[in-house]
Amino acid sequence: MAADALKLLWLLHGVNLDMLGRRDAAVYGTLTLAELEARVTAEGARLGFAVRCFQTNHEGALVEKIHELVREGADAVLINPGAWTHYSYALRDALEMIGAPIAEVHLSAVEEREEWRRTSVIADLAAVRVSGKGASGYDEALAALAVACAEGGAA
Ligand code: DQA
Predict the structure, then answer these.
(1) Distance 85 CA to ligand 1 centre (A)
(2) Beta-strand (E) ranges in 14-124?
(3) Strands of 128-131's sheet, edge to edge?
(4) What CATH code would you report for 3-151?
(5) Which tens digits make up the pLDDT trace of 99-154?
(6) Domain residue spans in the chain?
(7) 117 CB within 6 A, ligand 1
(8) Which among 48, 100, 116, 154 would be 20 to 30 A from 144, CA to CA?
């Protein structure tokens, strides 16, 4: 596929996800964030995406990164916001401005854990939601985003 045909996909990770590899492996797996990003970048390339990665432990930094994507454009966003998923209306308001398909991914089965993890304040903005499938959940989300991009639709 020609380089100019690649679609730009931003892989966004929120709070504590830089600690993958040190967090409970039974819940989050053994991959480090760098390994996960490399895996998503490779699988994304196979599907025609140029993948850019960003992680932060600062909510405002994530909001500002999303503002940048709103200004500069992105074809798709795959986000695992970590705990912000469950309560960050600021994140939600920022994502609402993204005019591209959004995938919400969680390594763990959030709906089968503590009650508070069952709430996602971004759920209705997501074209695709995957949880409890570990790193392969990201592959599933990428495939769904590729379809959404091919259909030319935003979430
Ligand atoms: C998580 C689930 C969240 O509840 C948690 O706060 C995380 C990671 C996941 O990938 O399973 O930090 O988003």
Answers:
(1) 8
(2) 49-55, 76-80, 102-106
(3) 49-55, 7-13, 76-80, 102-106, 128-131
(4) 3.40.50.9100
(5) 999 999 999 999 999 999 999 999 999 999 999 999 999 999 999 999 999 998 44
(6) 3-151
(7) yes
(8) 116
How far apart, in whole angstroms, are the C-alpha atoms of residue 77 and residue 90?
17
Q: CA of 100: how far to CAs of 17, 27, 50, 59, 75, in Å?
A: 23, 30, 15, 21, 6
Query: Token pair of 151, please?
Result: 């259909």
Query: Is 8 within 8 Å of 73 (Cβ atoms)?
Result: yes
CA of 82 to the centre of ligand 1 (A): 4
Question: What does the pLDDT look like over 87-100, one tens digit per residue?
Answer: 999 999 999 999 99
Convert the pLDDT of each residue in 9-27 to its tens digit. 999 999 999 999 999 999 9
